[in-house]
Write a structure and sequence with these properties.
- By secondary structure, the chain is mainly alpha-helical.
- Strands 1-2 form a two-stranded antiparallel sheet.
- A hairpin with a 5-residue loop joins strand 1 and strand 2.
- It is globular, with a radius of gyration of 22 Å.
- The N terminus is likely disordered.
Length: 214
C-alpha cells in the first residue's frame, strides 16, 4: 500500500496519505447531499487532508482535533484518531501519536485496527519501546497475515536489537543511602462514513541526611 515515507533508515512506509485520501473519497461519495457536506466533521476532515498532503502537519493536526470535537459516532472517531495519530507521527510527536492510535484500536473495522497497529509500531519504535513495537506488529499480522510492510518492519526490528548496556558501577552503601528518593509523579496522558459505510464496519525529595525514608 502506498504511503508517506518515514524513517528512511528503516526502509519502511508510514501509512497515511493514500489511505486517508481513499477514505475521504469514500466519505464524499457517501455524503453527496449538501446537508451531509455541511457537517463540521466532514469539512474539518477535508481541511486536515489537504493540509496533510501539503506537508502542513500542524494545521492538519488542529483540523483533525476539531473534527473529533464535532464527531460523536465511535467508529468515525476511531478513524479520525487514526488520521490524527498518523499526522502526529509525521510531525515528530510519537507520544501523542501513540495515544491517538491507541484510541483508533476501538474501531470495529479490522482494516482500521490493522493499520493503527502498524503505525503504532512506528510510534513505539520512535519512543525506543522495541518490545511494544514488536507486539503491535504481531497484532497487525494477526489481523492481516499477508501485510508485507508489517512483515518487513517486524524482521527489521528483530535484526536491529539494541546492544545490552554495561552493568552500572557498584556504589558504596552510604552513596546508595544518599541517593534514595521517591519515584517521580506520573504524568497525565494527555469522516468517515455514514450508515452505508458503517454497515461494512461490523474494536513521577531526596531523603534529608540522617532521616529514614519512612
Amino acid at each position: 500500500m502506498n504511503g508517506v515515507s518515514v524513517g528512511a533508515e528503516r526502509g519502511l512506509v508510514l501509512r497515511g496519505s493514500s489511505v486517508l485520501l481513499v477514505l475521504l473519497i469514500s466519505l464524499a461519495l457517501l455524503c453527496g447531499s449538501r446537508a451531509a457536506k455541511a457537517q463540521s466533521p466532514y469539512r474539518w476532515s477535508v481541511k486536515a487532508q489537504q493540509a496533510y498532503e501539503a506537508g502542513r502537519m500542524e494545521t492538519a493536526v488542529s483540523a483533525y482535533r476539531a473534527a473529533l470535537e464535532a464527531e460523536s459516532a465511535p467508529d468515525r472517531r476511531a478513524l479520525l484518531n487514526f488520521n490524527l495519530g498518523t499526522c502526529l507521527l509525521k510531525f515528530g510527536r510519537p507520544e501523542d501519536a501513540r495515544n491517538a492510535l491507541t484510541l483508533a484500536l476501538t474501531s470495529r473495522s479490522s482494516q482500521i485496527r490493522e493499520m493503527a497497529y502498524y503505525n503504532l509500531a512506528h510510534a513505539y519504535h520512535d519512543l525506543h519501546a522495541r518490545d511494544k513495537a514488536l507486539q503491535a506488529l504481531r497484532e497487525a499480522l494477526l489481523l492481516s497475515p499477508a501485510d508485507r510492510n508489517a512483515k518487513i518492519f517486524y524482521e527489521w526490528l528483530l535484526k536491529h536489537k539494541p546492544p545490552t548496556p554495561p552493568p552500572p558501577p557498584k556504589k558504596s552503601p552510604q552513596a546508595q543511602q544518599q541517593q534514595k528518593k521517591p519515584p517521580d509523579l506520573l504524568e497525565q496522558l494527555p469522516m468517515p462514513p455514514p450508515k452505508a459505510l458503517q454497515d461494512q464496519i461490523k474494536e513521577k525529595q531526596k531523603t534529608p541526611p540522617g532521616m529514614k525514608p519512612w
